[in-house]
Amino acid sequence: MSAASLSDIAWVAVDWGTTHLRALAMDAQGRDLAALASRQGMGALGRDEYEPVLRALLAPWLGERVLHVIACGMVGSRQGWIEAPYQPVPCPARPVRLVRAPVKHPGLRVDIVPGLRQDEPADVMRGEETQIAGFLAGNPDFDGLICLPGSHSKWARVRDNQVLSFQTSMTGELFAALSRHTVLRHSIAETGFALAAFRPGLRAMLRQPETLSLNLFSLRAQHLLGQTDPAAARARLSGLLIGGELAAMRSLLQAHPVAIIGAAHLSELYRIGLAELAVAASCHDAAEMTRAGLHAIHQTLETNG
């Protein structure tokens, strides 16, 4: 980045998760000027390593002015740079107070977005709250459910730019554990996805979610008897787990519109599942919602001084 364009940087948006670190240089209007990324996620860092890692990544953008960074994700967890305490729901989608990280470099200021907590039933989220803020910044009148599929899928009930409540399903982590660390590992492909096998698994759980355990071993038996291949078994397992998750959410899904924020392939699987329940859903890119959320939070900070 040239010295001329360096002066255009108003602040930096950072998404720092367990396995990744992504930074966007933003101008005063919230436009992306440049991007940098690293694989140095918080999962591999000690507390005294965060500032050196961030400074090394942002070195091309550091100049004479103080560079303001707003970061979201697991960087604010108890094991992260500094804990950004959870905000209790219900609460505004955009936090009005961030947590200042300890920084020695005089040209760097780092604020971390807090996660959300719910006491009953007990639940937490960190990182997804920024994506929710990004979606609501562009859809301020949305009154419904936001689904954020992933290792720990989140379902947030939102209205009037507030997060009212949320629930978490360990669907993605269950998929990884079952396909890699149980007897099913011999029958599930590591890659590939046969969509035609996804729908039957999905429908089986929407009809009888209580039969999940029975259907899981059936995957192994079908493979041993030559009735399926590993790619189809992988897709059916995905259908079973997503179907079970949607079955648990059925009562809420019948009462509210749904927006899905996630990676394209996974979001499409959830959209297909929701369509089986006659629920229409819009899909939104997770990275774009994170960027939009950090921009919305920056705007709130600027407005509130």
TrEMBL record:
<protein>
    <submittedName>
        <fullName>2-dehydro-3-deoxygalactonokinase</fullName>
    </submittedName>
</protein>
<dbReference type="InterPro" id="IPR007729">
    <property type="entry name" value="DGOK"/>
</dbReference>
<dbReference type="GO" id="GO:0034194">
    <property type="term" value="P:D-galactonate catabolic process"/>
</dbReference>
<keyword id="KW-0808">Transferase</keyword>
<dbReference type="InterPro" id="IPR042257">
    <property type="entry name" value="DGOK_C"/>
</dbReference>
<dbReference type="GO" id="GO:0008671">
    <property type="term" value="F:2-dehydro-3-deoxygalactonokinase activity"/>
</dbReference>
<dbReference type="InterPro" id="IPR042258">
    <property type="entry name" value="DGOK_N"/>
</dbReference>
<keyword id="KW-0418">Kinase</keyword>
<dbReference type="Pfam" id="PF05035">
    <property type="entry name" value="DGOK"/>
</dbReference>
